[in-house]
């Protein structure tokens, strides 16, 4: 995915992301202590967007916490993908659900087929 999309990592964990094996795929990485504003504070999302030079409406945040990932992304106008077991609740516009991260490429492909522009073709 790193060949096709600009990727950023935002974590509330206290790990040094640059030292992790996946760091090569995430040119932008923000850890909780860096901004003193852990998720769901919008500062980490806005910092990632700024570093990527991407507007919120052209970005997609993927996370497993409704409160810390999906709600703040939605409030900023971002698209969001919630990694959670399937449920019956209706999701808000621009929010999608997958059961496992392995489903993300298929979701993105499906969304790209339905849309001609915006986040899905950047």
UniProtKB/TrEMBL annotation:
InterPro entries: HAD-like_hydrolase, HAD-like_sf, HAD-SF_hydro_IA, HAD_sf. It holds the Pfam family Hydrolase. GO terms for molecular function: hydrolase activity. SUPFAM superfamilies: HAD-like. Its cofactor is Mg(2+). Keywords: Hydrolase, Magnesium. GO terms for biological process: small molecule metabolic process. This is HAD family hydrolase.
